[in-house]
Amino acid sequence: MQPNSRQYLGDILLYSGLGCFSYFFLVRFADIPLRYQDRLLTPEAFVAVMLLFNGVGLGMRYIQLRLRRSYPTFLGSRRQMVLFFVLSGAFLFLLNYLLLVSVKLLLDMPHPFQLVYKGTRLLLITWLTELVIVSQSVSNRFYKDLLAAYRRTRQLEETALRARYMALQTQLNPHFLFNSLNTLVAEIEYNPQGAVSFTRNLSDVYRYILACQDKRLVGLREETEFVDTYVELHRVRLGDCLTVAWQVDEAVREDAQLPPLTLQVLVENIVKHNVISPSRPMAVEVEVVSDEEGFPWLRVSNPLRPKLGAVSGGHGLDNLTQRYRLLCGKEIRVQKGEDCFTVKVPLLYE
Questions:
Q1: Do 218 and 258 fall into the same domain?
Q2: Cβ atoms of residues 302 and 270 within 8 Å
Q3: How far is CA 192 from CA 184, 199, 239, 285, in A?
Q4: Please, are residues 227 and 345 in contact by the beta-carbon 8 Å criterion?
Q5: If you compute the radius of gyration of the chain from its CA atoms, what whole number of angstroms results?
Q6: Per-residue pLDDT tens for 193-214?
Q7: Which of 306, 310, 307 is nearest to 340 (CA)?
Q8: Which of 97, 129, 162 is where one domain is finished?
Q9: For residue range 116-159, what is the model confidence (pLDDT) as tens digits?
C-alpha cells in the first residue's frame, strides 16, 4: 500500500471513530429523552454520521495539503498558525452542535437550538476530546511534513556542497598541467634524457590525480607517496636541491586523511615563489603538531627565499582554504615570518 493510501485510510478510520464517539455520547448523555435514544442509535444513523465526519475530515485534509505549498510563509507567521487552529476548533465545535440540533429536528423536539446545562456540558466534553485527538493528528502530520522538507533541504545542500567542492578541486588540474607542460618542453629541448624521466613521473602523478578525482578525502600515506613522486618531477629540472623531510609517525600516516592534492599545492607554492638552486637548496619540513585543543595539524614549513619580481596570485592556497571550509568548517593557517614560511592544514579522521 502506498504512503498516501495509508494516510487517507488512517484519516477515514480517525474521523469515522470520532463521528461514532460524538454521536453516541451526544445522544446517550445529552438532553434527549430516553424513549428516542434507541431509535437514534441504529447502524444507519452511525453510517450517516461517519459519512458526515469523513466529509469534514477529508475537507480539513485538503486544506492541509494546500498549506504544504506555503509552509515557510505559513510557519513564519504565528498569527496565521493561531488563526488556522482557532478556526479548525470552532468548525469542529459547530459540527457537533449542528449534529445535536439535527437529531432534535428529526425528533420534532421543542426548542431544538437551545441547550440545557447537561447538553452543554456533554457538548463541551465531546468537543474537547475531539479537539485533542484531531490536534494531535494534525500536529503529527505537520511534524512529518516538516521533517521530510528538512531532509530534502539537507540533501539539496549536500549536493550543492559536493558540487562546489568538486569544482574547487578540479581547478587544480589545469593549473598543474600548464606548469608541467612548460617544464616538459624545456626538458625536451635542453635535456632529452631528463625529459624521458620527467614524462614517466608525470604519468605517475596524473594517474594519482585521476584516481582521486572524485574523492573528498584521501589517506595521508597515499598523499605523501604522491608528493614524493611529484618532487621527482622538479628534481629533473632543479637537480637534488629540493628535499622533503617527513616527521610523521606511521600510525598517523595510516589513520589521518586530508583533501586530495593538498600537499601538492603546498609544494608547488614553495617551488613557484622561492629561489631554488644547487647553491641555495630548499629543504621542506613536514610534521604533525597539535593545537591548544589537542586537534592534529600537518605543518609544512620552508625557508623563505622569495624570487625577485614574483607575484603571488594566492589561488592555490585560496582554493585549499575553501575546500577545508566546505569539508569541515576549518581553514588552513598561514604564517609568514622574516625567514620562514609555514602552512598548517587540519588532519581529518572519518
A1: yes
A2: yes
A3: 9, 10, 15, 31
A4: no
A5: 37
A6: 878 888 888 888 888 888 887 7
A7: 306
A8: 162
A9: 655 666 667 666 766 666 666 666 666 776 777 777 777 767 76
Structural domain count, the chain: 2
Q: Note whether 42 and 150 are same-domain residues.
A: yes
Q: 186 and 307: one domain? A: yes
The overall pTM is greater than 0.70: no
CB atoms within 10 A of CB 277: 11
Tell me the β-bridge partners of 336.
Answer: 341
The rounded distance, in Å, linking the Cα atoms of 266 and 333 is 12
Dihedral (CA of 213, 216, 217, 223) sign: positive
Q: Position 140: which residue type?
A: N
**Alpha carbon distances (Å) from 232 to 211, 224, 273, 305:** 19, 13, 18, 21
Which long-range contacts link 107-115 to residues 24+ away (Cβ below 8 Å)? 107/32, 107/36, 107/40, 109/32, 109/33, 109/36, 115/31
Please give the residue range of the domain that contains residue 95.
3-162
CA 98 to chain centre: 49
Work out whether strand 340-346 and strand 218-219 pair parallel, antiparallel, or are unpaired.
Answer: unpaired
CB 282 within 8 A of CB 243: yes
